[in-house]
Amino acid sequence: MFLTLPTLLTWARIVAIPLIVGCFYLPLPMAQINLLSCVLFIVVALTDWADGWLARRLNQTSAFGAFLDPVADKFLVCASLLILLELGRVNALVALIIIGREIAISALREWMAQIGASRSVAVHMLGKFKTAAQMAAIVLLLFDGEIFGLIHTRVWGTWLIYVACGLTIWSMVYYLQKSLPAIRAKAG
Question: Which of 30, 58, 132, 134 has the most beta carbons within 10 angstroms of its beta carbon?
């Protein structure tokens, strides 16, 4: 199932990451670069919803798609956070916590799958809230401007990335707690 429409959308999300990064190297005014990268990020992020919906709708779910989808999400979030870090729009500790959690939970999920306990770290609603907060914060921080002359997106994005950071820590603790019985059983 490497070439189904849902899987192609996931691959497109991965391929689009260098395009988002590349926006910041264009010889354009920063406001235009911000808008372009923000719109591109939104379009790419929407493919995450679309590929899952299409996979279920077209009955084209696959183990490969289930593997690739979260990898694409993590690449997108990590690359965007690194850009925002370089631009001084996100705190280094926040970026480290979010990226570190993604690596740690991915490794935990792989290990749990190897010991036959993958259900203990299945995706939870808390993880979905974390992802939504991260994506919204990244959109606001990439835009880095005013909307309707009232809302400065960097301020709102900064607050939201701190909320996302808190949800990141909370969801990591949740997944670690859920996996503890399987870890103890395997170690004992």
Answer: 134
